[in-house]
Amino acid sequence: MRNRIIIALILLAGIPPATFARQAKTEVGLKDCYKSYFPIGVAVTPAQLRDPQQRQLILKHFNSITAENAMKMGPIHPREDWYNWRDADSIVAFAQSNGLKVRGHNLCWHTQAPRWIFYDSLGNLVSKELLLKRLKAHIDAVAGRYKGKIYAWDVVNEAVSDKPGEFLRNSLWYQICGEDYIAKAFEYAHEADPEAVLFYNDYNTEYPEKREKVYRLLKKLKDAGIPVHAVGLQGHWSVAQPSRQVLETAISQYAALGIKVQITELDVSVYTDGNIPEEAKGTEARGFTPERQKRQAEQYDMFFQVFRKHKDIITGVTFWNLSDRYSWLDNFPVRGRKNYPLLFDEQLRPKEAYWKVADF
Q1: Is 158 in the active site?
Q2: Homologous superfamily of 29-358 in CATH?
Q3: Which of 27, 80, 206, 265 is catalytic?
């Protein structure tokens, strides 16, 4: 009877039932919609946490946060004898004071690694022994500082090559240490924080050629008894790809290793030129057109259908940035081009894609 009265009042007020349902849905956050599935996370900056509107949006919709840049080796350890703890500390303190989980990102990466870690005072590449010693000292300091406060770490990021026929990326880590640095990074991280869930994290992990390489790496580590517990599929996707079949195949293949999966850096670009030759990039007409809005909403809908289906394997989904007000895709792969890859618009309002994710 009570529900009938409410419906009658809605109709008398001239409010379409679907609109009323959406208005009611805005009173809860994404994290509440997915409380029976997995944590919903977001990459943040200290500036966002200081902004009242953005802070409120974070607390309403997310129960996990990742530092977008503050914990990467370059920003947090710019000199061998000095750590810049301020920004990372502020993010962890915010999480602790508000009951949020924290994913650590990341401990070892070829990009945003400071020059000093690879070179000696004369400008020569250091030995394998010295580089591993420096890596261990870094991991001991960073993972050790946040032991018990960060539940998961992206230990090694993007070590697998994109080049056909090449297994591991020919980074300075690889040139100096060979593939040993990957296993050592996981061993060091486990020693520094034995309770943390340790991830290998990469992009394009769902597409067949790279997926086979990532699977090969993870299997090799697992077979050797290296403490790698999970794989992070970054999820920098677009309105055109990946397909449902490609995504489901990847999740199932990684799960066969006995590890968990997280979507660690999710965004859905409205452009489709992310993986094409440089000379062709930027040729698409720009703007968040109605057609792109529709395609983005449909793509997010499909992704989350897959995630929910595999909730026994997927232990978290993290969006890479909060809203279209700012996204790293605004300047990549085309400098100066605005992207619209997230669930909230530039005014922090939910987009059509948000409703596809929240209303299921």
Answers
A1: yes
A2: Glycosidases (3.20.20.80)
A3: 265
